[in-house]
Design a protein that fits this description.
Blueprint: H1 4-9, H2 12-18, E1 20-27, E2 31-38, H3 47-54, H4 63-68, E3 72-76, E4 79-88, E5 105-114, H5 121-136, H6 140-150, H7 157-187, H8 197-208, H9 214-217, E6 229-231, E7 242-244, E8 247-255, E9 260-267, E10 273-284, E11 287-299, E12 304-310, E13 317-323, E14 329-336, H10 337-342
Antiparallel strand pairs: 1-2, 1-5, 3-4, 4-5, 6-12, 7-8, 8-9, 9-12, 10-11, 10-13, 13-14
Length: 343
């Protein structure tokens, strides 16, 4: 990904927390065989890890029937496994009697998402499957040939060439899957129904995972209550936490005596900012609770304002947002009290 900001926010670890993509085929001798697992295939031979993939009902449903249902889902230990199956052309010599070289290959794409963001599964697996079919429909059988060739004990020159060509195709397929996921979760999808509890929950989950969800949060217009104390202190903090355009969080402090969270923010511009909106939410189980909303009529240049929110017992995750008068998210910050206390 060319954009360094996206690369930073969407590394392989964060991607693995969000989703795992499996591209598999049905082998006439070995059964269900993964061609790739993204972001990495270290669990490819782990029977326990692959258990929900092996027993996914997508394998046992004819292609024509599953197409009518769009995709087939399996819930397993806090994850939803979205599955789609399709047939692709083949020129591969089969290893079972009765199957011809042109017998189509059975391909299965499975996307695994945590329950908290399952709402994105429908769209994501549809996009991935369409792209894989469009870009690799006439190449998947060569990747399968590569997978079969790797198992050969004696590797002739022809088999070596098959492996070399297949390995390049696998890397190309991984790149397609990776870029599609990164692009999807960098932009996510702006939905028409933005008041849905499940969508709010999913957006909170993404924010807690460290992703920039400002493009989604911008579209929320939630009627909330305000309980933020606001004043302009003279003292400035030396601790810089983040920098985003017009505003800078200069200090975050936990007041143990009063059980309050203090967030000091500076207008870094040389202009007045009118009608800024500040949101503070505490988060439990990836769901925003008691979102507080405060409108700042006038924020002077270089002025620092202190926002104070009560700390809810047993809640360690908080979200802080600033929006402009067009309801566009300018600054967002995830605050973890445990990390603050340890510093």
């Amino acid at each position: 990904m060319a954009d360094s900001k996206k690369s930073k926010s969407l590394n392989k670890k964060s991607l693995e927390d969000l989703c795992v993509v499996y591209v598999l085929y049905f082998d006439e001798e070995r059964g269900h065989v993964p061609l790739l697992i993204y972001p990495h295939d270290k669990y490819k031979d782990d029977k326990k890890y692959m258990r929900p993939i092996k027993y996914h009902s997508i394998w046992f449903l004819p292609v024509d029937e599953q197409e009518a249902l769009d995709h087939i889902d399996l819930e397993y230990k806090g994850y939803i496994f979205f599955g789609k199956k399709f047939l692709t052309k083949s020129k591969r010599k089969k290893r079972r009697a009765g199957l011809k070289e042109e017998t189509p290959e059975t391909i299965v794409v499975i996307v695994s998402l945590p329950n908290d963001i399952e709402i994105f599964g429908d769209d994501l697996i549809r996009k991935l499957t369409l792209l894989i079919k469009e870009k690799f429909d006439d190449k998947l059988f060569q990747i399968i040939e590569y997978e079969v060739a790797k198992e050969q004990v004696i590797k002739t020159k022809q088999i070596q060439e098959t492996i070399k060509k297949g390995k390049l195709l696998v890397e190309s397929l991984k790149d397609l899957v990776g870029k599609t996921i990164e692009d999807y979760f960098s932009k996510v999808v702006k939905y028409t129904d933005r008041t849905s509890i499940s969508k709010q929950k999913a957006i909170s989950y993404l924010s807690l995972k460290g992703l920039d969800v400002s493009n989604i949060a911008n579209s929320f217009n939630i009627n909330t209550f305000s309980n933020i104390k606001l004043f302009d202190p003279n003292q400035k903090s030396e601790n810089n936490f983040s920098l985003e355009k017009q505003f800078k969080i200069v200090n975050i402090n936990v007041m143990k005596d009063s059980q309050e969270l203090e967030i000091m923010v500076r207008n870094t511009t040389k202009e007045d900012i009118n009608n800024a909106i500040v949101n503070i939410a505490h988060v439990k189980d990836y769901f925003e609770k008691e979102i507080m909303n405060q409108e700042i009529d006038l924020w002077f240049p270089e002025e620092e304002l202190l926002f104070i929110s009560p700390i809810i017992p047993h809640i360690n995750e908080y979200l802080f947002f600033i929006k402009n008068n067009k309801n566009e998210n300018i600054l967002s910050k995830k605050i973890n009290l445990e990390k603050l206390k340890s510093n």
